[in-house]
Amino acid sequence: MDTKNIMIVGVGGQGTLLASKVLGYVLLKQGYDVKVSEVHGMSQRGGSVVTYVRYGSKVYSPVIDKGEADIIVSFEELEAARWAEYLKPGGLVIINTQKIEPMPVITGTAVYPEDLTNKMKKASADVYAKDFLSAAEKVGSSKAVNIVLMGKLSTYFKEISNETWQEALEVNVPAKFIELNKKAFEAGKNL
Questions:
Q1: Tell me, what CATH number does 62's domain have?
Q2: How many domains does the chain have?
Q3: Which uninterrupted H or E stretch holds 14?
Q4: For residue 183, what are the domain limits?
Q5: Among 92, 83, 75, which residue's Cα sits nearest to residue 128?
């Protein structure tokens, strides 16, 4: 199998690293060679965070270059646009339409760009954009948006059983949050 590439992008504190662990676990359970690489800047201060997840028969490098990502899962709208050049033509972008203003916008030196989702659609990407944050809040915690997004992503992996995804949650999520995260995962699958 050729190597497939998934980028998980967001802002520090949104749970991108947990999401990449869950995804990596699921792919390993399917028998793929998996490489996960975390690349993040000022993640503790709300900076951009990106994780590369590569899988296939044999993966030699954890890095995804521009134009190579099959899927980008974006936890925030501007982050989807920031990393769009990494998407291959016809690739899929799953976008949480939440807007988190970066520091230049907060300080008034820049303006948050408008209509980003439609701009990405025009750039030949297959775009699925939803308010995943509201879905997370409905199940009990805005912090579960990462797992809601993983639930949606799971719908693109028909060959991976729901049981494998559930096991990944049980292994990677602290015990006191498992039930909440299972509800969040189901909410994402059903969006």
A1: 3.40.920.10
A2: 1
A3: none
A4: 4-189
A5: 92
DSSP lists the bridge partners of residue 143 as none
Secondary structure E strands in 15-105: 33-40, 48-56, 69-74, 87-96
First to last CA, the chain: 29
CA 173 to chain centroid, in Å, comes to 16
Ramachandran category for residue 100: left, alpha or beta (phi over 0 → left; psi -120 to 50 → alpha): beta
Rounded Cα–Cα distance for residues 169 and 174 (Å): 9
CA 169 from centre of chain: 15
pLDDT, position 124: 64
| 56-81 confidence digits (pLDDT tens) | 999 999 999 999 999 999 999 888 98
Measured over the CA atoms of residue 175, residue 140, residue 98 and residue 143, the dihedral's sign is negative
Q: How far apart are CA 78 and CA 148, in angstroms?
A: 19
